[in-house]
Write a structure and sequence with these properties.
This protein is mainly α and 216 residues long. 81% of the residues lie in helices and 0% in strands. Helix 1 runs parallel beside helix 5 and helix 1 packs across helix 8. The mean pLDDT is 86.
Length: 216
């Protein structure tokens, strides 16, 4: 085996770090966008056709670009933000651009599942649009939102592995550098196994949290 366990642990930490950081920043972008996608729709709380159309076009553009191409396309922006296009910190930038619009769509779908009767009842009680969003719409969709964000996190784990193709660090970089390029099957097996465990762990945790929220 051409790689030691310290390198594996370091790669695992890099994957956890870049995935966690990217998820946090993506959530800050995607959650508000997802809410706006819903409330600016025709017949909804803050109906605005221009805003709705612009948001949909922008989000669809980013979602239509494959992640591996997106990473390369925004290298100048990545350099501008973090000062380099290689490494774990640099990989976070394209991960955010990839996951932000994806999370927005997931949030939109979850919020659209809420019964319109809930919104109509809140309006009948005199609640303002902001009160309806944060006191009725989001709480009603909370279980679905947890599952949606779980899906987003799983997607980010997979994307972080692809970041290794351009020296993004983490398990993907380890698999390519030591596994693929040096034909070390054991390294490939270990990295894939760790990624599978990570995905299973995140999905299981998300399922538990979703059930817990639903019960409450």
């Amino acid at each position: 085996m051409s790689v030691n366990y310290e390198q594996i642990l370091e790669a695992l930490w890099e994957t956890v770090y870049m995935t966690g950081a990217a998820f946090g920043f993506s959530l800050l972008i995607g959650f508000p966008l997802g809410i706006l996608l819903v409330v600016t729709r025709k017949g909804h709380l803050l109906e605005s056709e221009p805003i709705s159309k612009v948001l949909n076009v922008v989000i669809n553009i980013f979602r239509s670009v494959p992640f591996i191409i997106l990473m390369v396309a925004i290298i100048p922006l990545t350099r501008l933000i973090v000062g380099t296009s290689i490494g774990t910190a640099a990989a976070i930038v394209p991960l955010v651009f990839y996951a932000g619009p994806y999370i927005a769509r997931l949030i939109e779908n979850s919020l659209l599942e809420v019964d319109k009767g809930v919104i109509e009842a809140a309006q009948a009680m005199g609640a303002s649009p902001m009160q309806i969003i944060f006191r009725f719409l989001i709480p009603e969709a909370l279980s679905s939102l947890v599952l949606a964000l779980t899906i987003a996190m799983v997607g980010l784990i997979g994307a972080s592995a692809m970041a290794g193709a351009i020296g993004g660090g983490g398990l993907g970089d380890l698999a390519i550098t030591y596994g693929y390029q040096r034909f070390d099957t054991l390294v490939m097996f270990i990295t894939v196994a760790i990624l599978v465990v990570l995905v299973q762990g995140v999905q299981s945790l998300g399922n538990v949290l979703s059930r817990t929220v639903r019960r409450s």
